[in-house]
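Look over this entry.
=====
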Amino acid sequence: MAKKQAKKVTPLMKQYNAIKKKYPDAMLLFRVGDFYETFGEDAKKAAHVLGITLTKRGAGSDTETALAGFPHHSLNTYLPKLVKAGMRVAICDQLEDPKMTKTIVKRGVTELVTPGVSLNDEVLQSKTNNFLAAVHFNKNLLGISFLDVSTGEFLVAQGNTEYVDKLLQNFSPSEVLVQKQHKQQFLELFENRYYTFYLDDWVFNATYANEILQNHFEVKNLKGFGVEDLKNAIIAGGAVLYYLSETQHNQLKHIQNISRIAEDNYVWMDRFTVRNLELYNPNSINAVTLLDIIDQTISPMGGRLLKRWLALPLKNLDAIKKRHELVKFFIDSDDFSTIVSYQLKQISDLERLISKVATGKASPREIVLLKDSLKAIIPIKIAAEKSNNSVVKELGKQLHTCKELVDKITETLFDDAPVNVNKGNVIATGIHKELDDLRAISKSGKSYLDNMLARETERTGIHSLKIAFNNVFGYYIEVRNTHKDKVPTEWIRKQTLVNAERYITEELKEYETKILGAEEKISQLEQEIFSKLLQYVIGFVQIVQENAQIIAKIDCLHSFAVLAIANNYVRPIMDESTDLEIKNGRHPVIEKQLPIDQSYIANDVVLNRNMQQIIMITGPNMSGKSAILRQTALIVLLAQMGSYVPAQNAKIGLVDKIFTRVGASDNISMGESTFMVEMNETASILNNISDRSLVLLDEIGRGTSTYDGISIAWAITEFLHEHPSKPKTLFATHYHELNEMTTSFKRIKNFNVSVKELENTIIFLRKLVAGGSNHSFGIHVAKLAGMPNTVIHRANKILNKLEENTKKSEVKEALKQEQHTEMQLSFFQLDDPLLENIREEILATNIDSLTPIEALMKLNEIKRMLQKK
């Protein structure tokens, strides 16, 4: 029996298979002539995602394979679609000119584009960073790094899982790198919220990480960056740089710095709080976020920085006041604001433009944009330096004119330089003599041929002579048959037509060589000169980045000023106290969503640790309790970002942590009920409070039965009241029974959101007033929501019956009794000698001087005394 013949594979497919083997998990775009082709499974995916035709290569043969492709010049159209679909894309280009080889053209992957590693404008969003992150696990301490290859920003941090979770949410990376052995752990902690890629374990090595970082920054150690003690963060940083080299991103001169995210410098908000307050991600479709309202920035750099400021509000009083002072300057200085506003509109994305230069991907048009942007900074610099504000003056001095760079680009490139250097007309006149001469030859072509035609017509007397060009013979002279006897002997006949003959001459051949050679040489020279210009521009990466950072800061502060003027915000008074006093505060988002004829009902909130630590807010659903809670947090947050705030006036003692537990949200996918999620989030708050914390609790306990819910809500409130930190707390609830707490806990105060009753309906006044509410108006709310009248009628009947048959005070009485028992319980009334001993032991203990460990030991000692009984 004959051996089964092996499948014949073409040299091209052999080459493809070898390259694909190196990038098995990437979509391989394989350059063949003027097309990028995909094969096999890649082709099927590409056809589906891109909507291009799926065909076959070698149809009907043993080597038949799926094929889909698109023209190479359409790469910028199709590549973003693949990346946005969550694919890793390996771009395989021809590495040599096909004319220069007789064998198969050399090919290789020139770039691997992934969701977290892209310089393509169509993939990136202008006002959002595109971070690649890496997480390193080390027992309970995690290291994390964030790098945006499109801007050069490189940040590292380390901390517990909760801190890393918060950072992941704040920075929202497009891709996260994780050690393979920790895949399961990452998924358990952070779920499936991020696009992840798993790297070999050896990459996450301290020695290797230090080496790769030191080599990149060309330093002997990392002390100069202030990160040397962040061992786990450094390992995460090393993993990110390793990944960039693996994805063929080796030109990284724009990554000039590595900074730590110092946890102590910023207000702590866990991811639940960030989500609940809808700072930059909406919780429902078409919802408006705080960022949507406050972002009045003009430049892409300003937009990205504002997002960072929102994620990381300041805790340093001087830094906050400095920002407020600058916002005031912008508000008061009309002329300066006008100049800044106008000039910012002329500035392109400096950070991303200079990054493209450093990575060798900048086009001639982008270099012109860079030059125009740098020129647009100069009026801002001049105006700032003339300012009477010392901080603004200093910002002006820090801005670079970049005169040398601007002059160099101006003299080297045409202002209307094309996107592609191969299109020609890139390099300006007067820069390169040979280039100018060659252009003169190229441009003078028509007149030269016209002169030749006139000369030869006169010499030969043939008035119908014609000079033309085709790809077979090049330039030729055409003579009609009636005049062929007048053709000079030195002309060489090349082609005979029905009515004419075509000739070439030595002069025409020389001219052709000169013209065609000139165009090729022009293209070559333009590319060489442009390459040299890019190398020159790379020398200015750092100062252009510095300019971008200062412009971003100016843009953010100008944005705050515009926001304050447009929406009547005021400058908050900030101090080191722990008090919070807001007069006529408003919700910055809700007030912008109201119909034109409605004004937002403003409210006062006063919280302090001595008199009014906990405000218990009761009132019906839909009355505005949640809005009051959220607006309090948002006002504090805006103030500590450096913005003015929506209020008549506000005095804010520095807050170091903001906690919210707002509304019920199931996490069914993780097998957790509404109540479990609620308790997890609340436990996280109770375990992390400090004396400068602001705690916002909305409807705690409603995920379980009424008695359970009231008991838990009571116990939580009592815990917060008795906790040594005495955190400022707003607690919205529909459990009116909790109003009883004010009789026993001196720093709890009752407030309610008032309503007006009219016959069988209610009007929400949305005003916070002192005193508790003892009516839930649930049936009224159901009626307002459009519930059928039959249901409303039946509900009223059931309510009346229940009210007749149930003693309304049962729950209150039980709570009072419990409270009374707790207050009255005294060891003095007990006759048991053992309990008498325990009483003496407790009374003899100075609780204020106990360390946590000593307290546990004392508790253990008492427990042992009881066990001996």
Notes: The two ends are 93 Å apart (CA to CA). The longest strand covers residues 748-758. The first helix runs from residue 11 to 22. Confidence is low (pLDDT under 50) at residues 665-671, 823-829.
